[in-house]
Design a protein that fits this description.
With 473 residues, this protein is an alpha+beta fold. Helix content is 26%, strand content 31%. It has helices spanning 11-18, 29-34, 64-71, 174-186, 208-230, 261-272, 281-285, 289-301, 310-317, 441-449, 455-472; strands spanning 3-7, 23-24, 46-50, 56-61, 78-82, 90-98, 102-106, 111-115, 128-135, 146-148, 152-153, 158-162, 167-169, 195-199, 246-249, 253-259, 324-330, 336-348, 353-359, 378-384, 389-395, 401-409, 413-414, 418-430, 436-439.
Length: 473
């Protein structure tokens, strides 16, 4: 079986879900305590890591796609994407623009960010550069994948760096670092010429056989990368820039899973099969870093029951009336946009309700309503935690209604500084004269055909749109 490592707030639930199909390795101490089984310490074929915003996970490694296939049906509102700029991929890219601290590089299907500290020369707009993806970025993230001109092969026990002739170790103390360096010389596997070894933190717990297997794995990958780069002309040479950007090597895959509200509750159930888990465990932990400690404390005290504590969560972690929140409008293809910030004018924590008021700027028309957006307009949006839709009423500066737009989406989640969901394309509008119209069904159909929206999720969106249309008619 493939070997997978799991890290972050979803670790217990995902370990439970993956344990039958994969060998879970490098388990943390809490996971070792919770599961009645042995965990190996060797190299992984894929690593699953919670994203910085805690909204989902990234999966990195040669078997990333296999792991995503296993987790794609966690919940009806689980969405997933394969990254066109995976970790470890090497590109000959083109500088689109330079900024204060680095350059935006066109990689083809995605852009990356190359900090000036990661390149040994000044680059300018239009320059061709050879770069590698060192830190991928989720499609809904505002940051671009982080690039470097140094080439590496990444692993959980052993990694390699091209152009480095030394052994380094990420170990708890100097004695362990020296021991790992000495062990390298004893291993049967030779380090490829021109590459240096970095022993990762997990190497300290690995056996000699596991270390050798890990070194052999990254050595084979390094040879593959060497072969790919050997046949590629330097992107700065005359004529080499034709056909750029192009991908030269992609030794591993990267994929992303976004967990919606229903999915988080499904993950609660998976975790509950292993250990005491409060209702909304993952929903609360996804809200804020500080919430994790509170959840752990509650679960250590007692079995907290099976109803998600909407009121306490919003009262404890926010938002509060008078504060502003950002509306984070996700798209089924993985992108995420901000619809701007608005003031929370009403809040009913026990019901998970809040009203957000935004001042609109002039320019263009309101989608589907066909009325101009003018200075002085106000948008009043009413959200409710867990609801598959939300309405926005647009008014002019005199308070007259210009129209109502009801967005159909994955279940709304209200976090301390933002409201989040994924738009499901189909929407319902109500015109000032009372007419009601359902719009953008074709966009939902296109998203299903493109594989961005599962059919079960699309059926739910259509049913919600039908109910809203009936209620407004």
């Amino acid at each position: 079986m493939s070997r997978v490592r799991v890290r972050g707030i979803y670790t217990t639930a995902l370990t439970h879900l993956l344990a039958d199909a994969f060998d879970v390795v490098q388990a943390s101490p809490p996971i070792r305590r919770r599961f009645d089984r042995e965990f190996e310490t060797g190299e992984y074929d894929a690593t699953v890591e919670t994203t910085d915003d805690r909204q989902g996970v990234g999966v990195f490694g040669p078997d990333a796609g296999t792991v995503v296939d296993e987790l794609a049906d966690v919940g009806r509102d689980t969405l997933h994407w394969t990254d066109a700029a995976p970790r470890g991929a090497v590109f000959d890219g083109v500088v689109d623009e330079t900024m204060g601290s680095g350059a935006v590089v066109d990689l083809g299907e995605r852009e990356g960010f190359l900090p000036f500290r990661n390149v040994d020369r000044r680059v300018h707009e239009g320059d061709a550069v050879r770069v590698q993806v060192h830190d991928p970025a989720a499609p809904w993230d505002r940051d671009r994948p982080l690039l470097d001109t140094d080439v590496a092969v990444f692993g959980g026990v052993a990694s390699l760096s091209k152009g480095v002739e030394r052994v380094v170790a990420d170990a708890p103390d100097e004695a362990s670092q020296r021991e790992l360096a000495r062990t390298t010389e004893m291993l049967p596997t030779d380090v490829p010429d021109g590459w240096g070894v970095r022993w990762e933190y997990a190497a300290a717990a690995a056996s000699v056989d596991e270390m050798d297997a890990a070194l052999g794995r990254v050595a084979t990958t390094a040879e593959t990368v060497d072969d790919a780069l050997a046949d590629a002309p330097d992107p700065g040479d005359a004529g080499a820039g034709e056909g750029l950007p192009r991908r030269l090597a992609a030794p591993e895959g990267t994929a992303w899973l976004w967990f919606g509200r229903e999915s988080r509750f499904e993950l609660d159930a998976a975790r509950r099969a292993v250990t005491t888990t409060m209702a909304g465990h993952h929903r609360v932990k996804a809200a804020a870093e500080s919430a994790s400690t509170a959840v752990d404390f509650v679960e250590d005290l007692c079995d907290p029951g099976e109803s998600f504590p909407t009121g306490p969560v919003l009262r404890q972690f926010g938002p509060t009336e008078g504060e502003t929140v950002r509306i984070r409008h996700g798209k089924p293809d993985g992108r995420c946009f901000s619809l701007g910030r608005g003031e929370v004018t009403e809040l009913a924590p026990a019901e998970g309700k809040l009203t957000v008021r935004r001042r609109m700027s002039a320019g263009g028309d309101y989608d589907a309503l066909g009325v101009p957006r003018e200075d002085g307009d106000v948008a009043v949006t009413k959200f409710r935690e867990g609801r598959w839709w939300y309405p926005t009423v647009y008014r002019d500066e005199d308070g007259d209604v210009k129209g109502t737009y009801v967005n159909v989406c994955t279940p709304v989640e209200v976090f301390p500084s933002s409201v989040k969901y994924v738009d499901l394309h189909v929407d319902v509008v109500k015109f000032p004269d009372g007419r009601v119209e359902r719009v953008d069904d074709d966009e939902l159909d296109d998203a299903v055909r493109a594989g961005h929206v599962p059919e079960a999720l699309a059926e739910k969106a259509r049913a919600v749109a039908a109910s809203v249309t009936s209620a407004l008619g």
